[in-house]
Amino acid sequence: MIVATEPDPTRQRPVLMVTFDELLEVMWRKRWLVLACVLLGAALAAAAAWIMTPRYRAQVILVPVKGDDMRGALSGALGQLGGLASLAGVALPGGGNKDENLAFLNSRAFLRQFIEEENLFPVLFAKKWDAQKGQWKVDDPEDVPTVADGVRYMDRSVRAVQEERRTGIVTLSIVWKDREQAARWANLMIERANRDLRARAVSDAEASRDYLNAELARTDVLELRQSLYRLIESQVKTIMLASVRPEYAFRVIDPAWVPDVKDKVRPKRLAMIVLGALGGGIGSMLLVGWQLRRERLRQWRSATA
């Protein structure tokens, strides 16, 4: 027969909560363990900091060229063509739209073209590339880096474009492990952006010129022909000025220099060591608290056995 028994009121539940003062007291008693954890965390962080490949930042300081600035400089040469061009929807010489040019510089399409022209896949994914054999060191064809992989990697970790709205100054930054390559890429990107935007402007002006020539052949009205002649002249000047102007969309204020070997972006070794020591200290606190709680539970079980 099973007889129900009342719970023993003298058997109290264990108090497992550890106060902060108790924790500090136990940590002081086990200060050598705490010190060992702190030193271990700092040592692991220092080892990781020395193993990591240093990264350096090269920067180009520039300002976008405004189309209005170019029109003002050429107003004497163009005369009254500004109004005629506006009526016909034809662009006059200039650096184009500032926001559009910045969007082009910061676009993934520009990155893709830059990667392909410079053949950067073996450089960006050097661990997977066999330089001697000239092929990828992967067994699965799906592991071969793609264009999308290269663009994503450069967009997230290598290239950065920042604009200061108040002054309009733009900074193009390249973060890379090779200091000379970082500076070269930064300067080359601006050069290529100016080249491509200039080529686009020339192409648009040539298309406008061809269209105006076609319209000129269709009309016999003297006044309209004179206006078309002037607009055609403006497009010819656009092509000429864009062709001889290297800094078409971006004017470089300060080109990229090779960073000093001491100017690493990462790793920040001192900061990593401090964080490692802090992590070791927090880990030792958790370890001591767990040991204290376990000891109290063991004592309670022994007393109530």
Give a verbal description of the structure:
With 305 residues, this protein is an alpha+beta fold. The protein has 2 domains: 20-51 and 269-293, no CATH class; 55-265, 2-Layer Sandwich (Bacterial polysaccharide co-polymerase-like). Helix content is 60%, strand content 11%. The chain is built from 12 helices and 7 strands. The chain has helices at 20-29, 31-51, 67-73, 75-78, 81-88, 98-105, 108-118, 121-124, 147-158, 179-218, 222-243, 269-303, and strands spanning 55-64, 129-130, 135-136, 159-163, 170-176, 250-254, 264-266. Strands 1, 4, 5, 6 and 7 form a 5-stranded antiparallel beta sheet that branches. It is elongated and about 115 Å long. The model is unreliable at 1-5 and 69-89 (pLDDT under 50).
List keywords for this structure.
Bacterial polysaccharide co-polymerase-like, two-stranded antiparallel sheet, disordered N terminus, 11% strand, 7 strands, elongated
Rg for CA atoms: 34 Å
Poorly predicted parts: 1-5, 69-89
* CATH class designation of the largest domain: Alpha Beta
Share of helix among residues? 55-70%
**Rough outline:** elongated
SSE order, as H and E? Answer: HHEHHHHHHEEHEEHHEEH
The tally of strands reads: 7
Relative strand content: 5-15%
Largest sheet: 5 strands, antiparallel
**Number of discrete domains:** 2
- Class by SSE composition: alpha+beta
Total of helices: 12
> What would the average pLDDT be, to the nearest integer?
79
The second-level CATH architecture of the largest domain is 2-Layer Sandwich
Give the CATH topology of the largest domain: Bacterial polysaccharide co-polymerase-like
Q: How far is the N terminus from the C terminus? A: 25 Å
